[in-house]
Amino acid sequence: MITEKQLRRLRPRHQPLSQHIPLIPAKINLRKVNIVFENIERIPRDKPVIFAMNHTDRYNYIPFMAHLWYDYRTIAPWVKGKYYQNALIGKFLDVTGCIPVPSRGYIITKDFQQVTRRRPEKADYRLLRDWVDGKITAESFFAAADDTLTRYVSTPHGDFNPDRQPYPAFIQTRYRRFMRLVTAVSLTALEKERVSLLIFPEGTRSVRLTPGHPGIAQMALKTGVPVIPVGCNGSDKLYPGLSPFAKRGTVIYRIGEPMTIDSDLAPFAIHEPFEPFTPAAEAKFGETFQAATDLIMARINNLLDPEYQFAGDTHGVSGDGAARFV
Predict the structure, then answer these.
(1) How far is it, in rounded angstroms, from Cα 181 to Cα 81?
(2) Other C-beta atoms within 10 Å of 309: how many?
(3) What domain count does the chain have?
(4) SS3 content of the chain, % helix, strand, coil (to 5)
(5) Dist. CA 167–CA 146, nearest whole Å
(6) CA nearest to 185, candidates 12, 312, 6
(7) 66 lies in a domain?
(8) Are strands 196-199 and 33-38 parallel, antiparallel or unpaired?
């Protein structure tokens, strides 16, 4: 599981050798791939940005980063917590400048796993998540929970003590601590190291575009850094499975116009201090965060071929329930 100590020691830096070295075999493998960038001139060379890209497969960031590494700023991708399960892979992601982002769902799933030694079933996860999100009351939770779930949320473990703090507050507190560190690392990358971020707003893989989560808007509105929407087309055919070695084919990255706090994002500007990923900020500015995210997703959608654009359902989404986090 991702730890606070791990996040505190992260230091994404501009063009580190630790990121360049693993990109060398990637660039060799990608010689057989036709990598097309449309409107690459829209990416500024003189300042960091936040790239917002659709996430069709496990590796669609590899051709993107490999192509931009020499001529543009280093990119630090936000990476889901599930990819840090293997210690070796986690270390590799650390040294290559990735930033782990543990979601509430990840924290719920991993804590449950550590205590019960198994992944929560879909119904278990839904009950826990709905209680944490305030969609159901404690009474409703315990009325529906089985013995295992009841013991899990009623028995002290680690830094959780149900006599001092109910389970939803415990998860929210741990999430705030983690995201405070993620925000600090990201701000250091953008403002001090001049490293760009790459964020997948959907929060999961999906061949068809799905609605975005508001984390990207919170970072953009907090920092004032331009958001560059990117439509990735064809990468799912290069990386159809688990292998990071691309098949022959073409991937097209369409670069959208920069979205800045002085132009497209101006209607969502927040003219007072706020801390991202906190209940206070989400309660006060939640609709603003989501509206800004929806606009960013619409811009990504406009950069996609029809087969990757928004669908009426979530067809193609990877994982279900807790499966998305492990």
Answers:
(1) 14
(2) 15
(3) 1
(4) 50, 15, 40
(5) 16
(6) 12
(7) yes
(8) unpaired
Residue 287 in domain: no
Instruction: Give the range of the structural domain holding residue 79, as residue numbers without chain letter.
Output: 4-43+59-277+302-325
Q: Which residue has the tokens 């206070």?
A: 280
Q: Does residue 293 form part of some domain?
A: no
Report the distance separating Cα 153 and Cα 108, nearest Å.
11
**Closest Cα to residue 242, out of 86, 28, 23, 78?**
86
Cβ atoms of 182 and 7 closer than 8 Å: yes
By residue count, the chain amounts to: 326
Residues 254/52, Cβ–Cβ less than 8 Å: no
Q: Which of 172, 175, 159, 171 is nearest to 101 (CA)?
A: 175
The 10s digit of each residue's pLDDT in 157-198 is 999 999 999 999 999 999 999 999 999 999 999 998 899 999
- 284 within domain boundaries: no
Tens-place pLDDT, residues 279-295: 899 999 999 999 999 99
pTM, 2 dp: 0.89
